[in-house]
Amino acid sequence: MDLEISPSLTIPAAELSWRFSRSSGPGGQHVNTTDSRAELMWSVAGSASLTDEQRQLLLTRLGRRLVAGVITVTASEERSQLRNRDIAVAKLAELIRAGLVPETVRRASKPTRGSARRHRAAKELRSATKQQRRRPAAE
């Protein structure tokens, strides 16, 4: 089951590794016998499906989540291992999509004449209020 992130990026199933363990939460005695918690691991640093630019972008943006270049996603919301696997895949895909979104460049803008006028009027009003609070000068 390959993981399709975008039309141009698909991660082969061979690059994904799974680990299952017992999950906490609801389920009664069933929870003590099944490994329903799913952990999905993918090596960003060692992936052959990424370009160098994509790899560098993910390594910098997901740096806090990476351990030795590997990103780990955990899902234990459901009682079923199959549903937790689907959730983990969706979480990983969303993380990668968010990490690869191009950064928008902010263009500097100038305040409008009206907003500058209102800003100045507010400052003058505040100044007048503070001047009225002063103790009168002793002459």
From TrEMBL:
InterPro entries attached to this UniProt entry: Pep_chain_release_fac_I (IPR000352), Pep_chain_release_fac_I_sf (IPR045853)
Region (Disordered): 106-139
Bias-annotated ranges (Basic residues): 107-121
Entry GO MF terms: peptidyl-tRNA hydrolase activity; ribosome binding; translation release factor activity
Domain Prokaryotic-type class I peptide chain release factors: 9-134
GO-annotated biological processes: rescue of stalled ribosome
Domain of life: Bacteria
Pfam families with a match to the protein in the record: RF-1 (PF00472)
Family: Belongs to the prokaryotic/mitochondrial release factor family.
Name of this chain's protein: Prokaryotic-type class I peptide chain release factors domain-containing protein
Source species: Paenarthrobacter aurescens (strain TC1)
